[in-house]
Amino acid sequence: MFFKFINLLKLSVMKRNIFIIAIVVAGLFFSGCHKNFESINTDPEHLTAVNMNYIYLFTAAELITSGNSDANAYEDWRNNLIYASCMIQHLSSTFSYWGGDKYTYNAGYNSAYWEQNYGDPVKNIQEVIAHVKSDPAQANFYNIARIFKVFMFQRITDMYGDCPYSQAGLGYIGGITTPKYDKQKDIYADMLNELQDAATKLDASAHNTVGGSDIIYRGDVNAWKKFAYSEMLRLGMRMVKVDPANAQKWTQAAIAGGVMKSNDDNAAYSHHGYIQSTPTVYGTALVLDGVDPNASRLSKTFVDFLNSTADPRLSYFGTVSTDPTNTDPTSAVSLGDTTTSMQLGQPNGFDNGGGATDIVNAPGYPGNQNLYSIVNRNTFARYDAPTYFITYAETALLEAEAAVRGWDTGDPAVYYAAGVTAAMKQFDQMASLEGASPAAFPAISDAAVAAYLSANPFKPTDAYNQINTQYWVATFMDEYEAWINWRRSGFPVLTPISNYPGNVTGGTIPRRFTYSTSEVSANSENYNAAVAGLSGGDKMTSRVWWDVP
Amino acid sequence: MNAAVGAYSQDNVWKSFSGGGGPFVIPYFYSISNVSSKPFNYGFSHSRVNSVYGNVDVGFKDFLFLSVTGRNDWFSVLNPKTNNYFYPSISGSFVFSDAFNMPSWLNFGKLRASYGGSSNTGAANAYETLLTYGLQGYTTNGQAVGFVVNGSIPNQALRPVSIQEEEVGFNLEFLNSRLGIDLALYNKNTTDDIVNVSVSGTSGYGTNVINVGKMRNRGIEVLLTGTPIKSRDFAWNVSWNFAYNANRVLYLAGKNYLSLDVPRNGDASIRAVVGLPYGQIVGYKYKRNSAGSIVYDTAGLPLASNGVLPFGSGVYDKTGGLTNDFHYKDLTLSFLIDYKFGGKLYSGTNLILYSDGLQKGTLQGRETGFIGKGVTEDGHPNTKVVITQNYFGAIAAGSNNIDEQFVYDASFIKLRSLSLTYNLPKSLLKSGFIKGCSLSLVGRNLAILLKHTPNIDPESTYNNTNAQGLELSGYPSVRSYGFNLNVKF
Fold this sequence. Notes:
- The structure holds two protein chains of two kinds.
- Chain A is mainly alpha-helical.
- Helices cover 44% and strands 4% of the residues of chain A.
- By secondary structure, chain B is mainly beta.
- Chain B is 5% helix and 54% strand.
- A 14-stranded antiparallel beta sheet of chain B has the order 1-4-5-6-7-11-12-15-16-22-23-27-28-30. In chain B, strands 17-18-19-21 form a four-stranded antiparallel beta sheet, with no helix packed on it. Chain B has a three-stranded mixed beta sheet with strand order 10-14-13, with no helix packed on it.
- The two termini of chain B are 40 Å apart.
- The mean pLDDT of chain B is 90.
């Protein structure tokens, strides 16, 4: 086209012999006007699929799932703490934006986990899987990634219900810009098959490319195998009401496959000590001891239960600080007073509004809100406190329930004791943190554990309540899991905050989070189809598939 | 006759260096060496456009003119296989007032017509045809952390935007050029426009850069100029311009709509919808019965429409302005009134004000409770009393979102500028060293003469691209007063 045009022009110009101006920039044409364009349009500062090592995206997926997608623990702050921790009455808050305390609504807080996780870690894990899937040398990496992907989606679907799964995170790889919402029932079926298949294919004797980039198990194939079967147990037990046959089948498959056996098997990410330039690597503790230190107190429900059983963990959960806002990690954090007798829980359902529901009008108000306990800054509110994904304590307690149901031949009392013991001994993993002071923070002694178990022995007549209440205690600060298991089991029996003005649940504890409002416009058809499948619409009161009343 | 050929190469290179640091090792010693951590960042991008072009201009007896051009562009930011575009143009004009004898009241007349093409790369930036990865500036327990660089889904098939435009028009001047009119009619078709469209966040990305399809702009532009009064000491010049643009999205790669942008609060959004003007605000309307009454649920809260509906475009279709200059001896007073009509605005500010009970509209029933005017689902008049806070909270940011409540007509008329100028008489500048001197008082954005958006300036949209029609706590146009001294040597 171009040459034809030039010739034409020359012809007409020469014939008429008229004034010609010609400017030609040398060396530009004739050999092609876009010779180097492909290299010009390749970003020299970043990696392409040719030279990328996908292990770094796996690290990112694990890191963000541990609670922090930005420098402010965005989704952990909103979903784990503001909502779940207060709804489940581990914590309580008088701050108006802590909506979980009184079931008020904030659409953006509801969808924070959704938006941050689909935005990065889901995309990252899909990239990993797509690029290592067909490489036999990466088989262990591929199967570890599949197992962790199940964990990621289990969280999402348990909180939101039906959600994009089979088509999620494939905007580039699959060209899918409006993923369909899979039914939770189908997601569960696929997740269970994935766990089974990946766990079977993990091979400790084969080449392993994962190593330290796996910030949970450093590539340990045997540990991932136990993780896979513990996750399978968790998924199986979720279905006890909606599909008892499959619940039993998968629970038994999980226990047969080999679940976690001790706290050494716990899946945790140990955040490193505080470095100002890397706030992105801290989770729950960053909120509790950094960006929002004064908003929450331990809930009265939680502290009263711990006191009623003389639980030695109370002083590990709580501390009383005269000034919770004093949190400067580079100098002295206010560690407060962790003495058991000093701990006091703040009731849920109060505010600082000056009216009838003002906290000063709460029964037994101690005269100063700072006399209520906050989360202990030697344990969970330390920057370097581990974030747990799945623990042996949870696993043993689920085994106890499976045994009660007759799905396992083990003795439920033994599983129960193992679960409670593990939950208490788990604090050893915090005592060994860098900089932790052993004097201020001794481990719970074997004698204290034994005393607790003898005072609170397993009672077969109250088994479901007892096991799941212990699960509730053991999942403190993994509030997602505490809330999900409460919805599944109904235990412990909590008294909802019934009549707070502006609550959106009719005074009941919320049973799911609402979808991202951007889906209304950016993914309308699939969003509408998913909402049509929710009995009460896209509300916090609607129930997910396995959540049968 | 006049002809030229040429070539052109344009490189856009962007580099950035940034550094930060903290905390100080020794307090109150302000030195870079005293900072324990000093992260450093480098950014780079490069794109190139190469072009060759040629043109031939032919004139006949100074009243008939013809110009033909051709141009080819190559864009580095597009797919190498489809990154070039050739576009010719032809334009002609005929000054008939020079070709024929005209009546004395018509002193200039010209007809013109043109057809032309053009191209660009729309919203495409460098490196958007390939997925790339980076490593974060931090590590965790010594481990590097990777990330996907692209926030927009890379598109390997990007083609140049193709634009075809036809225009006809005329200029006429009457009565010794005291009155003039310039009128143009145009029809412009844009195909393969490159736009960043919103995609579901569950895809892992926020947007997708694509060639979206076909859009038409048809319109008329009129400029009237006149000098109603012209005497030795006093003159009045007036000019009025008016433009009307009828935009229509014709085709969107087989889809009915594309999501262009979403607001920072609320759940309305901006879409391109086939058959409607670009930039439609869509959202939930009030559910109404066949008689047009709003329908309420048993709790007394209004129900939303089934699905989202278009409210109209956020882009104005009628624009213009009126300028007046009055000269009296050495004084000049001039002012500009401008206006835009036909655009809509979804106001995030008013949504928040409704949600927080700070909008005047939420005063209704504050003490006694609010009863929505309309009917229940079974057709009876709604009599349910709702606590006002709950009612407006529910429609603004709660369980019964009604976007319609926050969509306003964004039309306006503004007194855009006013100035009063005094030119120092030449008699005072006898020395000749100073050739001219003037003093002016000027004001801009002095008054909004008409608007329909409570609490906000109708012009405070997020931006003038895809988010026209979305607003949240934006600054109004800045009102300024000034004093100018202009001296010429």
